[in-house]
Amino acid sequence: MNAEIIAVGSELLTPFRTDTNSLYLTDQLNQLGVEVVFKSVVGDDLKHLVAAAQHALFRSGIIILTGGLGPTEDDLTREAVAEALGIPLHREAEVLAAIEHRFASRGWKMSPNNAKQADILEGATVLPNANGTAPGQWLSGKVEGREHIVILLPGPPHELKALFESECRERLRAKLPPAYIATRVLKVAMLGESHVDARVAPIYKQYCDVQTTILAGAGEIELHFKSRRATMDAAQACVDEVADAVEDELGDAVYSRDGQSLEQIVGYWLQMRGATVAVAESCTGGLLAERITSISGSSRYFVGGAVVYSNALKSELAGVPADMIARHGAVSREVAAALAEGIRYRCEATLGLGITGVAGPTGGTATKPVGLVYHGLASDSGTEVIERNFPGDRKRIRRFASTLALDMVRKKLM
Asked: pTM here?
């Protein structure tokens, strides 16, 4: 069976609330070998909710609705599912008594509208909610000849998670045939999304039983491979086969094959080589140092550095000659090299990184446009400088620049 999740609540259609329940449920379902093929967010409107439930019943075997089980007029999930299935609701006396007891045990008076939380779908199993007044509901059977499981869960995450784990997980496991989902993630640095896909599509298209997804970031591409099989060994073998073939095609552009970040990988290489690194950053404003030091234990290989935004500090802290800046400009190949060499010398590091550029949105010229960045990497074997013109806004350009700098270290140490 495949699954569909419907998050109910008009607040989830505003900029102020995010549906996190579906992320948790997707992870739980994947662990049971179930793929989530649709997700939707629907406001508190009966007509829209009925339509969403009907569509879900048409295309998915497992339908989980979250939220809309409360006591107020806009809590309509029970009514919508009843209409979509063409079955009645009835008020369950035991459930109502449990709700009344919950209020009484706290010394509160229950308002009459809370009674609607005891309305149960005909034929449904009540799922006790130890953390709230609204119980969940479980309904399984055939709809138009197809087997379906419909689950109603409360919206508050702490209620939903506890209820799913105590009442739903094993029920689902008992209903489902054995299935396992295996995944692999390859991470690629400094290649474009279209370029990567053009090279690897002929490979992954040969594997119709492996789902491939390509995600693009600023200077980084992730390739996600997923397969579902009756055993984990079979599923893992499928994704490993296609991932290994793709990795062979992309070569050393692949920096991680098990989900690790670029800064983690750079840290591993520095430690393996017994090397240290120092940085002198202009347009990235400390982002490169922040990424390096985000890894625990980075003090073993990161010496330190300087944010040298002004020309005076480029000279004072990284030793860049003032006449060089006057002659070539702060954003230049020569200054990037001097930043890398100067910070390496002053910090007594194995490697020195220098970054200078125009992050925008202002400051660009015809000869030095926004997005132009020079990256210098100095070592005892010489200094390498790479020039790039990055697209995007200020945040994206700075991310691109720090990613290329890290990748220069990785490739140098490889």
From this structure: 0.85
Q: What spatial distance separates the first Cα and last Cα of the chain, rounded to whole Å? A: 45
Structural domains of the chain, ranges and CATH numbers in brackets: 2-175 (3.40.980.10), 180-256 (3.30.70.2860), 262-413 (3.90.950.20)
Amino acid identity, position 126: V
Cα distances (angstroms) measured from residue 385 to each of 75, 94, 105, 344: 61, 75, 72, 15
| Measured distance CA(328)–CA(387) in Å, rounded | 15
Q: CA 48, 51, 56: angle at the middle one, nearest 5?
A: 125
Q: Please tell me the distance from the alpha carbon of residue 190 to that of residue 263, in angstroms, as a whole number.
A: 14
- Give the C-alpha separation, 84 to 60, whole Å: 14
DSSP 8-state assignment for residue 283: T
What whole-number distance in Å separates Cα of residue 8 and Cα of residue 77? 7
**pLDDT category of residue 307 using cuts at 50, 70 and 90:** very high
Handedness of CA 160, 162, 166, 172 (dihedral sign): positive
Question: In this structure, what DSSP letter does residue 168 have?
Answer: I
Measured distance CA(119)–CA(82) in Å, rounded? 10
Give the pair of three-digit tokens for residue 175: 């209903």
Does residue 329 surpass a pLDDT of 90? yes
Distance CA 74, CA 89 (A): 17
